[in-house]
Amino acid sequence: LKQVFNKDKTFRPKRKFEPGTQRFELHKRAQASLNSGVDLKAAVQLPSGEDQNDWVAVHVVDFFNRINLIYGTICEFCTERTCPVMSGGPRYEYRWQDDLKYKKPTALPAPQYMNLLMDWIEMQINNEDIFPTSVGKCKEEVL
């Protein structure tokens, strides 16, 4: 058990950000939100009397919107030249398949993959059969 909690093997030193830099400011904001006292479990808990499918749908759309904003801030730095592969580090490569144009998993540059992914998610969110705009009519088998 001592080896599991050995500080030299399991913990990495905190990353330091140079004061006055944009990363330092972002780090301060992130720390403030983490230390704001928000109970994340309570924040995502289904409110009493609400439909679970409606609750999930609202959060899926909100999550998509936030990811879209984040992606929008980095997309100019990730070009087909600088990001020729959609990967999750050196060991994982993501391939696109949609059974329309890409019938088999296909390696794509990261920007192309992300554009296809964001378009696909938006199509799902805008599909009334999956995310109806009328409250209380969500398809259970999809979610």
Automatic annotation (TrEMBL):
Listed Gene3D superfamilies: MOB kinase activator
Keyword vocabulary terms for this entry: Kinase, Metal-binding, Transferase, Zinc
InterPro entries documented for this protein: MOB_kinase_act_fam, MOB_kinase_act_sf
Please verify whether the record's keywords include tRNA-binding: no
Keyword Cell inner membrane listed? no
Give the matching Pfam families: Mob1_phocein
GO molecular-function terms, A-Z: kinase activity
Q: Where along the chain is Zn(2+) bound?
A: C78, C83
PANTHER family registered for this protein in UniProt: MPS ONE BINDER KINASE ACTIVATOR-LIKE MOB (PTHR22599)
Write down what this protein is called.
MOB3B kinase
